[in-house]
TrEMBL record:
Family to which this protein belongs: Belongs to the SELO family.
Cofactor annotation: Mg(2+)
MF annotations from Gene Ontology: AMPylase activity; ATP binding; metal ion binding
GO CC annotations, alphabetized: chloroplast thylakoid
Membrane-spanning residues: none
Pfam name, any one: SelO
Keyword Nucleotide-binding in annotation: yes
Protein name, UniProt field: Selenoprotein O
Length: 574
């Protein structure tokens, strides 16, 4: 224990120095890579695999395996980076210009202070328990503490084999890496909780991928993304140990304690309070007292964070594509960007994942229910480890439903510029949008141009929406005219001016979203060593709610080529 104390003290000293400028003032000093304040709480406080080889195997009684990146590189190149993520780490942006930067962030050269490992976890995939999964191509470098004592975990995705790689090579291609990098940053700018991305490096080596699972693999450029999050713990991190019987149930508790200590510290300091005791509404009038069981309070918070994030997905038309329990962050972050897609034409049954096509389990409309199913698996895990009783587990699920509806209704109300939720009006709108396959993003952006003037003649009502209501016949025009009339009627009683409403609507309805075809254009250019389009796209997506004159092409509807395989829809391995 003494060595752990020394480590914590030395980190605290470093932080104190870091928060002071060179002149002893409180101005923040930007750091070189060698000056980052590493802290390895995950490695220090949780059980480790005694082995460090990459032979695929069941890793028992351990939360991680220490593991060095093993990817091969040849003149690696820095493709794109995020200055706002560097700011979180207090990393000097000049560091991106270092000649050795691509070597350090491909994993080919070790970063001073890092203690790399791969995390062990399991999960339900498409509703079926899959057993051990783990970080098959991601290697965490460690946690960096900034001067505010915020903890940021850095992880290289595509850095080589681990014991969790099964039969795969542990590598990633440029195509999927660009998508993950851009979507991480785009989602953050949309105000949606997400893992972030610091940088993307091309390895200079090719990687073989069978993109369509049709027996025709091809060589693609290899790449590595440095992902950043407060933690990459998933529902499956706890599920795996609970699934292994009595011997490993204590690990579930240890891991839960670790998570609460570092990421939910307010739950460790709870005192008895009426405000977090709740009636279950059952006949025996029993009460769930969250202050008497921190694990119950934690389960409720995980459920609510998950519900809140999924409500935001629905608001912007984001479809994750692979909502397996190993892809569910315990912090409520959007995590693991694979075959994701934003809605173009509004289609509730849209799935961007070819693997999901038969049952469309993970389609856009199902996401809220799948979130609840996943929370139920998480609650069951904590119950199995005797951290929750059945009432507490059920209560967490109940709170998921309440939180999702509260947040979703608030988002949709604001998207329409209404002052109160109107279920019928929103329901009719979504029905009309589905019938006419209206572009989700562009429609809501145009909707803010409607004036709350009930005297507008019927034949002029649809003019502000003309660009979104394409190729509709007379019958559909009448349906839309009827809806717009009732909408204007509702607006005219709100007492909010047109300008005020437009500004409010434009602050929640983005003009720019990361459509799959935009990603593909950037990928095509980058595969020819032109990184300009990736960087331009990042800039546009960092300001999704702004008009950005001159950038209108990034708000256009998808061209015909966007519907070819591998652009609009992708496989899990993408």
């Amino acid at each position: 224990m003494e060595s752990a104390a020394v480590t914590v003290d030395s980190v605290a000293d470093k932080l104190k120095k870091q928060s002071l400028g060179n002149d002893g003032s409180n101005s923040k000093r930007m750091l070189k890579l060698e000056e980052l304040n590493w802290d390895h709480s995950f490695v220090r406080e949780l059980p480790a695999d005694p082995r460090t080889d990459t032979i695929p195997r069941e890793v028992l009684h351990a939360c991680y395996t220490k593991m060095l990146p093993s990817v091969e590189v040849e003149n690696p190149q820095l493709v794109v980076w995020s200055e706002s993520v560097a700011e979180l780490l207090e990393l000097d942006p000049k560091e991106f210009e270092r000649p050795d930067f691509p070597l350090l962030f491909s994993g080919a050269s070790p970063l001073v202070g890092a203690v790399p490992y791969a995390q062990n976890y399991g999960g339900h995939q498409f509703g079926m328990w899959a057993g051990q999964l783990g970080d098959g191509r991601a290697i965490t470098l460690g946690e960096v503490l900034n001067s505010k004592s915020e903890r940021w975990e850095l992880q290289l995705k595509g850095a080589g084999k681990t014991p969790y790689s099964r039969f795969a090579d542990g590598l990633a291609v440029l195509r999927s890496s660009i998508r993950e990098f851009l979507c991480s940053e785009a989602m953050h700018s949309l105000g949606i909780p997400t893992t972030r991305a610091l940088c993307l490096v091309m390895t200079g080596k090719d990687v073989s991928r069978d993109m369509f699972y049709d027996g025709n693999p091809k060589d693609e450029p290899g790449a590595i993304v440095c992902r950043v999050a407060e933690s990459f713990l998933r529902f499956g991190s706890y599920q795996l140990h609970a699934s292994r019987g009595k011997e490993d149930l204590e690990i579930v508790r240890t891991l839960a304690d670790y998570t609460i200590r570092h990421h939910f510290p307010h739950l460790d300091n709870m005192s008895k309070s009426e405000s977090i005791s709740f009636s279950t509404g059952e006949e025996d009038d029993s009460v769930v007292d969250l202050t008497s069981n921190k694990y119950a309070a934690w389960a409720v918070e995980v459920a609510e964070r998950t519900a809140s994030t999924i409500a935001r997905w629905q608001g912007v038309g984001f479809t994750h594509g692979v909502m397996n329990t190993d892809n569910m962050s315990v912090l409520g972050l959007t995590i693991d960007y694979g075959p994701f897609g934003f809605l173009d034409a509004f289609d509730p049954s849209f799935t961007p994942n070819t693997t999901d096509l038969p049952g469309r389990r993970y389609c856009f409309a199902n996401q809220p229910d799948i979130g609840l199913w996943n929370v139920a698996q998480f609650a069951t895990t904590l119950s199995t480890a005797q951290l929750l009783n059945d009432k507490e587990a059920n209560y967490a699920m109940e709170r998921y439903g309440i939180k999702f509806m509260d947040d979703y209704q608030a988002i949709m109300t604001k998207k329409l510029g209404l002052v109160k939720y109107n279920k019928h009006m929103i329901g009719e709108l979504l029905k009309n949008m589905a019938v006419d396959k209206v572009d989700y993003t562009n429609f809501f952006r145009l909707l803010s141009n409607i004036k709350a003037d009930p005297t507008i003649p019927d034949n002029q009502l649809l003019i502000p929406l003309k660009a979104a209501l394409l190729d509709i016949g007379q019958e559909r025009k009448e349906a839309w005219t009827s809806w717009v009339k009732s909408y204007i009627q509702e607006l005219s009683t709100s007492g909010v001016s047109d300008d005020e409403r437009k500004a409010s609507m434009n602050s929640i309805n983005p003009k720019y979203i990361l459509r799959n075809y935009l990603c593909q254009s950037a990928i095509d250019a980058a595969e020819q060593d032109d990184f300009g389009e990736v960087r331009r796209l990042l800039k546009v997506m960092q300001r999704p709610f702004d008009e950005q004159p001159g950038m209108e092409k990034y708000a256009r509807l998808p061209p015909a080529w966007a519907y070819r395989p591998g652009v609009g829809m992708l496989s899990c391995s993408s």
